Amino acid sequence: MSYKDSGVNINEGNKFVKKIQPYVKKTLTSEVIGNTTSFAALFSLKKERMKDPILVACTDGVGTKIEVGIKTNKIRGLGTDLVAMSINDLICTSAKPLFFLDYLATSKLKVDYHAEIIKGIVDGCLESDCSLIGGETAEMPGMYDGKDFDLAGFAVGIVDKKDIYNNSKIKSGDLLIGIPSSGIHSNGYSLVRKLFFSKTNSFSSDPRFVNTIMKPTRIYSKLLSMLKNKVHIKGVAHITGGGLVENIPRILPDGFGVELKSNSWPVQKIFRTIQESSSLSSEEMFNIFNMGLGIVICVDKKNLSRLQRALAAKKEKHYVIGKVTNSSNFSII
How far apart are alpha carbons 293 and 267 in whole angstroms? Predict the structure, then answer.
């Protein structure tokens, strides 16, 4: 029995590497040393003129959105989702993205099919100004069925220690400004899959609905890079798993809470559709989904007008959604 007979095709793996190299090269900056086919990737920090440089690292996946992508044949955007999930976490520290690595595991490698995922990763890296310096593609027959695959991503950034967002300065009365999401992003898809893509209730053939459901996660790194040079930001929350209820409190000091104003921002139709199609209460929706907001920025109210001017100059929609309170509660009024 040959290695190919056991389910691993080395030639396909080599073809895949050759196929994706032109896409990967689009992301590489002058800081990348050597080529991306070595045993390890090298990245120079020489250009980073910082007094006390701190490296920041994140890792994440895309979850069961992958299964919906497979069913709807919308897999390129999953690559962008993969980058977004780590980069959007990374920038919550005030870090600048430097580079990204990916891990793709599948039962059987299909060069053209799986290259679409890498194209999506490249899209995300270009959008976040980071280099795709390496990755791993694992062909594991028996571990996955049919077209199934899984993804993981790893991002590294850098920040000067003095510029790290310091939540010790957050106080009661500070304002919370929401920046719109592009849709569901990459959380809550176990429920979405059961509601809309089961054997008895499939929307796979509805292109408009599929495009809404599978819209890639928005990446906020360029926006945050611009804002932090124009206004003092106290904290940034990435609204991922746990929704607004769990993620905003993560940036607050102990003993502080959140008061959100209901109807202070437009909730996209897809979230209403999900709630109407399920038995979820509004409280549960806010604890699962981003409800139309991808990140929430905390600023002193005296800096609100400066922040709003900077956002308006970029024609960026934004909403004052609430404030920090001196209790540890999360409330929506």
Answer: 8
